[in-house]
């Protein structure tokens, strides 16, 4: 009997883009509450570069005997459903798999995923665009949850990296919660940031009521918060130490199918941008990683398995 297989990108001895291998692994059937998705698109996110160069292995966050999977978010089509799942084969979905310690990822032709972590992709939003939403849309939504509703007094929020994937979504979503948002980004990003309804700056002075740190400025970002203000970071493994009565929090993005459904609806309506820099075949994953590592990219590299 022949075993059917699918292709996936993994690292065994992580040491950067050249250590990424594409291997064949056996297809398995979804268990209760799970579906099998044929992946149409998987974006390259900054975290994937860290996994490929062994950053999280070195921190002790990965303990895989054979290989570590790459990729956190995806869009694709349901091809098989497990018991108790109310989704038909053929449904277009997007989703997020989280955590570092896993032998599978979204840089793959197929994925087994919990149905509760998925959202249906609205008609009119293509799968490449949809794939760019889950990780960074949910990160932004969960950052805004940590900030909460803006107080009536003191609602000036600085979003660093406002032209990035996380920052851009925070700029958009925080305004719904009453924050008066200024985006810190490069000079060439002004039109994009203002287009999201925010004020724009390339250089921020201290004194902000809150800072959401999409640019990973860390202590330099914390220094921009007023005494007793709020700071939300994006690096759980490097949370800046609190000072001056500032509330310091850090987002650890988790799957949330219902929330993702709302974010995809906002993407379909154009309210949330879905920027794609390039679409590349899975075989060119190392090249895509090298390009992202250079920095300055606007929009995602999206892999097509
Ligand atoms: N904790 C979590 O759960 C979680 C979830 C998602 C993402 N993240 C992390 O969040 C970070 C951002 O991710 P992303 O996908 O949004 O990255 P991104 O798309 O590359 O965005 C980062 C943005 O920050 C800008 N930037 C960097 N330094 C700046 C400075 N000094 N002034 C102005 N702009 C500056 C970059 O511009 P240039 O390209 O010109 O430098 C870029 O536009 C990454 O570290 C990622 O790993 C964490």
UniProtKB/TrEMBL annotation:
Keywords: NADP, Oxidoreductase
SMART domains: PKS_ER (SM00829)
An MF annotation (GO) of this entry: NADPH binding
Domain Enoyl reductase (ER) positions: 15-303
Superkingdom to which the source organism belongs: Bacteria
Membrane-crossing segments per the record: none
Any matching Pfam family: ADH_zinc_N_2
Keyword Metal-binding attached: no
Keyword match RNA-binding: no
CDD domains, A to Z: MDR_like_2 (cd05289)
Signal sequence annotation: none
Protein name per Swiss-Prot or TrEMBL: NADPH:quinone reductase-like Zn-dependent oxidoreductase
Native source species: Nonomuraea polychroma
